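Practice problem 4.
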């Protein structure tokens, strides 16, 4: 263990740092028949399993959704709640 890095060997620290460094954006878009879709964008690398995160968000919100082109899409207008859920999981979310 190095004297320079006090966090060396701490399990999960790299994952937590990667989450905190990413700046995510949450927006609501109107789709076909004027239905709202909440979109989470800004994932920079493979440190986050988008499928698992999308599943957690959908389950917490009781809504459907998908992962599309590196973004998570959740059916409905859930912008505020999604921001809260992402913050609880250690992500930085822009307003």
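Answer key:
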């Amino acid at each position: 263990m190095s004297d320079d890095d006090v966090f060396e060997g701490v399990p999960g620290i790299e994952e937590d740092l990667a989450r905190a460094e990413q700046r995510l954006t949450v927006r609501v878009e109107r789709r076909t028949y004027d239905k709202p879709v909440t979109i989470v964008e800004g994932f920079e690398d493979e440190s986050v399993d988008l499928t698992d995160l999308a599943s957690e968000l959908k389950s917490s919100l009781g809504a459907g959704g998908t992962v599309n082109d590196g973004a998570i899409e959740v059916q409905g207008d859930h912008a505020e709640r999604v921001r809260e859920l992402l913050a609880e999981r250690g992500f930085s979310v822009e307003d």
